[in-house]
């Protein structure tokens, strides 16, 4: 693998109808990156992921993908129909395109799926209906699906949304392990303290990129206030960074911004 960027957005501007959602956004995803995109609700995080995937046409600017890049998307769990009648193994198996000659999961693939299940801590759950899993397990199934698809780049849209604190940490550890195994990972998150502060690269987005880089350079009161639109402090607690909102309705983050749903 070379160090040529996998995906580059240059001067990306996206509008849905009249409103500009992304304005002159430039980001680079290099092999081995583990990047968190943070910003308040409606700041354009999902739109940026879609544009980087090539799922929407920018109004101006460019997205360049290395030809060998195959991205596996792990969607927001809220967007998934959990009543769709499939088991965990079937859900994962469907990630690969099938021809008419072998529309079914082959014996070899069954072994691969079992290995992916083991790797993601889902051992023994292959025959379970996807509805009958915990939130953390459901998130893992869709990560497993992306891994089984053969993707080496994973995009996760709010992977810890709706999960409790312990499960959030488990997902964070899993993503770190996958990153250490060579996966390039880009995720969007509202969870500054639970997830973002633990990532090596953070992109603060609010229509445009307010700051991008390692936590030391990005997690500053100035960048955070310009991203979230309210005053923030960054405290050290037990060797860890904690971002605290210091406005009138102060709280320790994660939070939904005032504009949040
Ligand atoms: N298909 C669409 N058509 C029109 N407007 C859209 C569409 N998708 C998103 N938007 C608008 O674009 C803006 C950015 O949305 P986006 O989902 O990218 O933000 P986000 O940062 O991911 O938000 P959240 O954190 O709440 O998921 C919002 O104002 C949203 O209402």
Automatic annotation (TrEMBL):
* InterPro entries linked: AAA+_ATPase, ABC_transporter-like_ATP-bd, ABC_transporter-like_CS, Metal_Ion_Import_ABC, P-loop_NTPase
Annotated signal sequence is: none
Q: Which UniProt keywords apply?
A: ATP-binding, Nucleotide-binding, Transport
Q: Which domain of life is it from?
A: Bacteria
Q: Which residues form the ABC transporter domain?
A: 7-231
- Tell me which Gene3D superfamilies the record gives: P-loop containing nucleotide triphosphate hydrolases
Which GO molecular function entries does the Swiss-Prot or TrEMBL record give? ATP binding; ATP hydrolysis activity
Q: Which PANTHER family match?
A: IRON TRANSPORT SYSTEM ATP-BINDING PROTEIN HI_0361-RELATED, METAL TRANSPORT SYSTEM ATP-BINDING PROTEIN TM_0124-RELATED
Q: Per the similarity annotation, which family is this?
A: Belongs to the ABC transporter superfamily.
What is the name listed in the Swiss-Prot or TrEMBL entry for this protein? Answer: Putative metal ABC transporter ATP-binding protein
